[in-house]
Amino acid sequence: MPRPIEALIHTDALAHNLARARAELAGARLWAVVKANAYGHGIARAYAGLRAADGFALLDLAEARTLRELGWRGPILLLEGAFEPRDLELCSRLGLWHTVHCEAQIDWLAMHKTKAPHRVFLKLNSGMNRLGFTPQAFRSAWTRLEALPQVDEVSLMTHFSDADANANTDASTPGARAIDRQLQVFTETTRDLPGERSLANSAATLRHASDAQVRADWVRAGILLYGSAPDFPSHDIGHWDLQPTMTLRSKLIAVQQLQPGDTVGYGSRYTAHAPMRIGVVACGYADGYPRHAPGTHEHGTPVLVEGVRTRLVGRVSMDMVTVDLTPVPHAGPGSEVTLWGRGPPVDGRVSLLPIDEVAHAAGTLGYELMCALAARVPVRTVGEAAWAADSPPP
Ligand SMILES: *Cc1c(COP(=O)(O)O)cnc(C)c1O
Q: How far is the CA of 203 from the centre of ligand 1 (A)?
């Protein structure tokens, strides 16, 4: 028998989250951001749930090609644009739209031979200082692009560094008002330029989409589609009405009865104060579970056993974690364990463990956990959309 671990991708939840974002948009269009192999979900699996998007945004040319092979004929945007001149050939061939964030990318376009001119998104560095032209250089970049026969339409974009910032944060904290400042820089720099605009990531979409300037023409939603709240712990997915799209689940493969003074795992980081049962789960850091997830008396990372919430005890090892079975006395070898996502129903109600809670306990983000799902974990697609796409007609 293979190890009992598996990941499930819920295409119905992807579709739900997309619809949920769309409800905020008052007609603005939505890029489904599927970079990093759709945040670890797999491009093809995510595509099954996200077909209602207006376009797909990503970084990797191979992933763009995969989307075309899957049959997507709509817009695809390369969020970092070309990495070298010959990437533009693939853009021409596959009809990819691409970001232009530096002079070299304009030079490459100027030398590029193409029959069909390209749609480009000119990126403004409005304060994040990662990619984009400074406000001083932006206008001349725009003029240069506009004059190129290789360029069809020039759209305008920027990226927020602090769209998830808590509105109650002390205004002296760096980033507390950054979204207002960046919005002002973008608005002033692009004031009289024509072209479609794109500013908002997930956090800005959920928190600020009522502002037409933030919503603009296209939002770029990533993490919200994958059932993680961009501003956790200020808000959780329940607050935003999002559903988990990835479940990581496994089973208990052993049970130990501890006596007071017994310790658990490497480094003996957990000591039993009273008799207790613990379960050993077939999931470790080599599966993508965060090694720093704590399992001490003070801080226990949440986990579901048979849908019942309990906590890690002891350190995460390569292939196993250990969990407190006190709240689940009926659990034993073979019991289902949910590391994150959807658990089995308990008393007729679905059990859920949002990935954000696990990430938060481990000092990281839902983003990182999804992307780190290890290649050795078998993945299965579930949900109505997948059924419709994968099953032969009855
Ligand atoms: C990743 C990315 C996004 C999506 O961010 P989320 O926080 O996942 O919504 C949007 N825009 C750009 C440029 C990105 O790189």
A: 9
Report d(CA 44, CA 343) in Å as an integer: 24
The torsion angles phi and psi of 13, rounded to 5 degrees, stand at -70, -35
Between CA 281 and CA 103 the distance in angstroms is: 52
63 neighbors 35 (Cβ within 8 angstroms): yes
Tell me, yes or no, whether 61 and 127 share the same domain: yes
pLDDT digits (tens, 9 = 90+) for 111-133: 999 999 999 999 999 999 999 99
CA distance between the termini of the chain = 31
Q: Where a domain ends, among 165, 198, 228?
A: 228
266 among known catalytic residues: yes
Residue 291 lies in a domain: yes
> Is residue 175 within 8 Å of residue 229, measured between CB atoms?
no
Q: Which of 182, 199, 201, 215 to mutate to test the pocket of ligand 1 (most atoms within 8 A of CB)?
A: 201
If one counts the domains in the chain, the total is: 2
Classify residue 175 by its DSSP letter: T
189-207 confidence digits (pLDDT tens) = 999 999 999 999 999 999 9
Q: What is the CATH number of the domain that holds 21?
A: 3.20.20.10
Nearest to 5 by CA among 387, 382, 374, 388: 374
270 and 218 assigned to the same domain = no
- Which residues constitute the domain of residue 159? 12-228
Q: What CATH number does the domain containing 363 carry?
A: 2.40.37.10
Distance from Cα 150 to the centre of ligand 1, integer Å:
27
